Amino acid sequence: EADADRCLDILNRLDECSMSIQTLSETLVGVAVSKCKTNSDADVASKAKSLVKKWKQLAKQSGIATKKNNNNKDNNNKSRGNRSTPSPAKLTISTETEKEWKALPPGRENMCIKMHETFRMAHA
Predict the structure, then answer these.
(1) Could you confirm whether the keyword Nucleus appears in this record (predicted)?
(2) What residue ranges do the domains of the chain occupy?
């Protein structure tokens, strides 16, 4: 239950961030949040679905085709190659937090790093 509360807190904080298409594409945080849509905790799953829907709407308003609406796989693959994913070296993470993240499975550690970078970029 503590993990679910923590996830929900992170998702709520992401919802409060002023998100841009640039931040979403550079951090790929949408990929991490999308994985939470199948979380066993109904509140976490619901919040993740809501965020993904909100960000897809933002993309649509910006004139960017979402994956579901874009049937041209060649264009999708080309655009992915141009994205730059922030390197962990660029982040300023406290030692305590870094130790906690290192104890997580690799996928969760990467998700934490992406979300941290998203928060940093959204508040820059």
Answers:
(1) yes
(2) 2-122
- The three-state secondary structure class of 10 is helix
Which two structure tokens, joined as six digits, stand for 101?
């993240």
Locate tokens 């609406």: which residue?
69
Q: Dump pLDDT digits (tens) for 71-97.
A: 444 444 444 444 444 444 444 566 776
Give the CA angle between residues 108, 98, 31 to the nearest 5°: 30
Q: Please tell me whether the overall predicted TM-score, pTM, comes out greater than 0.85 for this model.
A: no
Of 32, 27, 34, the C-alpha closest to 48 is 34
- Return the structure tokens found at 66: 């979402």
Measured in whole angstroms, the distance separating CA 45 from the mean position of its chain's CA atoms is 14
Sequence-distant (6+) residues with CB within 8 A of 10 are: 115
The H-assigned helical ranges of 62-105 are 73-81, 95-102
Q: What is the DSSP-derived secondary structure letter of residue 85? A: P
HSE-CB at 24 with a 13 A cutoff on CA atoms is: 22
Amino acid 68 reads K
Other CB atoms within a 10 A radius of the CB of residue 35 amount to: 12
